[in-house]
Amino acid sequence: MEYLLGFLIAAAVGLTGVGAGSVTAPVLILFFNLPPALAVGTALSFAAAIKFAVLPVYMKRRQVDYRILGLLCAGGIPGVLFGFYVMENLDASHYHGVIFGMLGVTIMAVSLANLYRAIRNRTPVNGIDRAKWLPPIAALIGGEVGFSSAGAGAMGAVALLNLTKLTPAHVVGTDMVFGLVISILGGGLHLNAGHFDSPILMKLVAGGVVGAVTGAVLSSVVPSRPLRLALCVWLAILGLQLCWKAFS
Predict the structure, then answer these.
(1) CA distance linking residue 102 with residue 79, whole number of Å
(2) Please, what is the angle between helix 96-120 and helix 134-148, to 10°?
(3) Cα separation, 176 vs 181, whole angstroms
């Protein structure tokens, strides 16, 4: 089951751009009954592995703007540290309701951001450079990633589309590398703290590597927009389920 899950999530990321962490963490919580901290750590480590596997593609295509990447990392790295600190200090049984609620709200926000991204991609590229706002926004994104594993792909892309002059191709590449950096950092912190399920993680990565390659191959022939919209709706449903779990 875990092999198939890793394959499907990685393939969907390659086809739609929906973040691996956004999908993986709520699935691990709701269907595999992992505690929030273990689910977040496992999801971040899985996301880092998948993004690292496709990194050469974006580097070869020169789709990364290093100035913008530096601004994102300037805020995103301390944000991840803060998000991990919050998760570490709320990781107790009597705080699980709070964690479930915050995860649910984050997942729903990510799904809405992805819906906006799908609509925004049909409009012309932004002609105004407001890149100076990227560090504080990236800090918020990093905080969400460190706490919930969600947000880097969707929120980062929305910020880049609205605040920079990057082309869509450079938005995708720069956002992917930013997501890789904070996923490695956040995943490393959670791994060091023991927040992961090793058997599930290994199976997810094994299936995910194949899925990432499959998604990259199919991205040129399969229409990604309908699948992205469907995944966003599914994410919103998962977020609602987590909110419900917080009060049950």
Answers:
(1) 16
(2) 130
(3) 9
142 by DSSP, 3-state: which? Answer: helix
Q: What are phi and psi of 8, to 5 degrees?
A: -65, -40
Predicted local confidence at residue 97, as pLDDT = 67
Q: Is the pLDDT of residue 239 over 90?
A: no
Task: Answer whether 37's CB lies under 8 Å from 26's CB.
Answer: no
Q: How far apart are CA 96 and CA 214, in angstroms?
A: 36
Q: How many domains is the chain built from?
A: 1
Task: Report whether 90 contacts 155 (CB < 8 A).
Answer: no
pTM above 0.85, yes or no: no
Residue count of the chain? 248
CB atoms < 10 A from the CB of 165, how many? 15
Give the residue from 18, 28, 16, 19 showing the smallest Cα distance to 201: 28
The mean pLDDT value for 137-143 works out to: 89
Can you tell me the distance from the alpha carbon of 229 to that of 206, in angstroms, rounded to the nearest whole number? 27
CA distance 174 to 172: 6
CA distance 170 to 188: 27
Q: What is the DSSP letter of 126?
A: P
- Distance, in Å, from the CA atom of 167 to the CA atom of 147, rounded to the nearest integer, reads 30
Range of the domain at 152: 2-247
Collapse the DSSP code of 181 into the 3-class scheme (helix H, G, I; strand E, B; otherwise coil) and give the result. helix
By C-alpha distance, which of 185, 158, 176 is closest to 83? 185
